Amino acid sequence: MILALTPCPCLDRILHLEGRLEPHALHRVRLVEEVPGGKGLNLVRAVRRLGGEALALAPLGGYLGERVLALAQEEGLPLLPLPGRAGRACQILWDGEGATEVYEPCPPWALEGLPPLDEGVKVVAGSLPPGLSPEALLEAFRPQAVDSAALFPAALQARVGLIKPNREELRRLAPGEPLEAALRLHRAHGTALLVSLGGEGALYVGEEGVYRAKGPLRWGNPVGSGDTLLGVFLWQRVLGKPLEEALALGVAAATANVGRGGGRIAPQEVATLLQEVEVRKL
């Protein structure tokens, strides 16, 4: 079981524009989608769509929180609401060529209602509410994996088992090429790194070795692809699958997410893409 805590959940409103996005111009929308969002919710959605067990946890007070919970229930997305007035609207503008994301600020949350969880692989994913200490969150939840730029420094110091930065987040932690930077961080802290590299696939650095995986290039809405990669990778490792297989399926699922967004992957498409994923031990 994957347990994914999202301290700052979103009501994702995906606006499909009629034409290309231009600054300071009027735009018309041909389609609006409302989706329960936030990194942990995307992660859980992807795992569930492939048949895995996963549960999202998020503070969901106020109108936006109620709307996120209602949409999750309609979708069949397992979501445990926590007390606290959290939740924000996130606008994703898609013009057929790329996504422009506009996020409202996250309301404060003070860890109230966080239940004791002794089983499952715990993940913290997404932004932190203002005033919430990274150290306090790590101490209260004790995750095995972290996908949050605000938490990465504290997670490394706490020697959390795995972090999943993207290329830019890794560069902020350690300058240099992704492989060199990830190796330095792993040697210094003992934490494994799963680095999402966009169209170049993913990199894994840990005690098991160094692996590089790459799938076919795709074009479309990429929001949630990194969340999908992490969730499917962890789920496969929980099942006892070899690291190479877990990484390959994670990359295939992340690739399938491109064009769909939010972890809304199709199992058959993932299976097809898996045949095109190459994993190499470096």
Q: Write down the overall geometry.
A: globular
Q: If helices are DSSP runs of H or I spanning 4 or more residues, what is the number of helices?
A: 9
Strand sequence of the main sheet, in spatial order?
5-4-1-8-9-10-11-12-13-14
Mean pLDDT: 93
How many strand elements? Answer: 14
- Quote the distance from N terminus to C terminus: 30 Å
Q: What gyration radius follows from the Cα positions, in whole Å?
A: 18 Å
Low-confidence stretches: none
Question: How big a fraction of the residues is strand?
Answer: 25-35%
- Share in helix: 25-40%
The description of the largest β-sheet is: 10 strands, mixed
Label the structural class: alpha/beta
What is the string of helix and strand elements? Answer: EEEHEHEEEEHEHEHHEEEHHHE
Explain what you see:
- The chain has 282 residues and is of the alpha/beta class.
- Helix content is 34%, strand content 26%.
- It is built from nine helices and 14 strands.
- It has helices at residues 39-49, 62-75, 134-141, 152-157, 167-173, 178-189, 225-238, 243-257, 267-274; strands at residues 2-5, 10-17, 29-37, 54-59, 79-82, 88-94, 99-103, 121-125, 145-147, 162-163, 192-196, 202-206, 209-214, 278-281.
- The strands form two sheets. The protein has a ten-stranded mixed sheet, sandwiched between helices.
- β11 and β12 (202-206) form a beta hairpin.
- α8 (243-257) packs across α9 (267-274).
- The longest helix has 15 residues, at 243-257.
- The two termini are 30 Å apart.
